[in-house]
Amino acid sequence: MRMIGQRVTRQRVAIAELLEDVDEFRSAQQIHQMLQQRGQEIGLATVYRTLNAMAEQGHLEVFLQPTGEHTYLRCEPRAEHHHHLVCRTCGRTVDVAAPELEQLVESLASSHDFTDVEHSIDFLGTCRDCARA
């Protein structure tokens, strides 16, 4: 993950490498804890600043949990816009394409004379494994 516009520091590299291994949305606190478990001495404030900068540059997706907490996930670069199904229990995350939703957004924008509309819609539910538990 190339960090354009940011100095490449040991801390930023450690955070980027950790995010390569994470398949679910995680909070800054969780990422900080995971870094500590890997032996990385990085302050929580540095983790927050780095995650926010990476999100602004489009390297991370941000999901606002129902609790109001921001969580972060590195997504593979895609040509098409996509959404996520997120398990509220275990955090399992699945990328989903939703062309019907994209058509709805375009229709809503058009019917209200809006152009250049952006949106972020993710779905929160319970995965099959957690529902069985």
Q: Strand-and-helix sequence, N→C?
A: HEHHEEEEHEH
Mean pLDDT, to the nearest integer, reads 87
The secondary-structure class comes to: alpha+beta
Helix content: 25-40%
- How would you sum up the major sheet? 3 strands, antiparallel
Q: Give, in spatial order, the strands making up the sheet with the most strands.
A: 1-3-2
Counting DSSP H or I runs of 4 or more residues, the number of helices is: 5
Low-confidence stretches: none
Can you give me a brief rundown of this structure?
It contains 5 helices and 6 strands; from the N terminus they run αβααββββαβα. The chain is of the alpha+beta class. A hairpin with a 5-residue loop joins β2 (61-64) and β3.
Structural features, described:
The protein is α+β, with helices and mostly antiparallel strands and 133 residues long. The chain is built from 5 helices and 6 strands; from the N terminus they run H-E-H-H-E-E-E-E-H-E-H. Strands 1-3-2 form a 3-stranded antiparallel β-sheet. Strands 5-4-6 form a 3-stranded mixed β-sheet, with no helix packed on it. A hairpin with a 5-residue loop joins strand 2 and strand 3. Helix 2 crosses helix 3. The longest helix is centred in the middle third of the chain and has 13 residues. It is globular, with a radius of gyration of 17 Å. The termini are far apart. 17% of the residues are buried. Its main location: cytoplasm. Belongs to the Fur family. Homodimer. Keywords: Cytoplasm, DNA-binding, Metal-binding, Repressor, Transcription, Transcription regulation, Zinc. InterPro entries: FUR, Fur_C, WH-like_DNA-bd_sf, WH_DNA-bd_sf.
